[in-house]
Amino acid sequence: MATRERTIENLIERLRRLPGIGPKTAERLAFHLLRVDAAEALELARAIEAARAAVKTCRRCCNLDAQDPCAICADPARDASMLLVVEDPREVARFEDVGYRGRYHVLQGRLSQLEGIRPDDLTTDLLLRRVAEEHPAEVCLATNPDLEGEGTARVLAERLGPLGVKVTRLARGLPAGASIAQVSASILADAIEGRRPLPS
Ligand SMILES: [Zn+2]
Question: pLDDT per position in the chain (200 positions), as tens?
Fold first, then answer.
């Protein structure tokens, strides 16, 4: 294969590895990037490079921040008795906005049979280790109130059971199928306030 074709194949393959991108979309994006102004295409490469250099994954809670450990983990004023488990760093920002002042653990996804995502693919082991070492009084499973989020909470509750920690879930006031990233601040604040215990 000519070098030029191999280079294009490589670009398509890289794009295909992104979440939610199938082979057809990857091909469309690749040819789009080759067609647009070269400077504009390279801006994307530079934006990725700059974001990767500026943002780190916190080795304690897996949140994204400019520093590791992240500003939240490094803050001794945060309430260490409460650990809020979220799917995604975007949700950390939402809970910060509604005044939550405990600590977080970011799963970096949720369990999905359809997508073949198993507990080992998430930061589950790190969560269990943290609970065993940090002894929070409560772990609140704040995964999304949809099918996969509920399934993830159920599996985590089972695994946390033997550690003897109190495990809770956000209040049922969150509409089923809603996304934490999108519900209003008042609903989210109520959901934290009205946490309910989960049987382990
Ligand atoms: Zn952190």
Answer: 678 889 999 999 999 999 789 999 999 999 999 999 999 999 999 999 999 999 999 999 999 999 999 999 999 999 999 999 999 999 999 999 999 999 999 999 989 888 888 888 889 999 999 999 999 999 999 999 888 999 999 999 999 999 999 999 988 777 777 788 888 888 888 888 888 888 65
Specify the pTM: 0.78
Q: Ligand 1 center to residue 1 CA distance, Å?
A: 46
How close is the Cα of 105 to the center of ligand 1, in Å?
8
Q: Which CATH number fits domain 61-197: 3.40.50.720, 3.30.70.3450, 2.60.40.760, 3.40.1360.10?
A: 3.40.1360.10
**Ligand 1 centroid distance, CA of 69 (Å):** 5
Query: Quick check: 179 and 144 in contact, CB under 8 A?
Result: yes
CA of 93 to the centre of ligand 1 (A): 13
Structure tokens that stand for 42 in this block: 């390279």
Does domain 3-54 sit in CATH 1.10.8.420?
yes
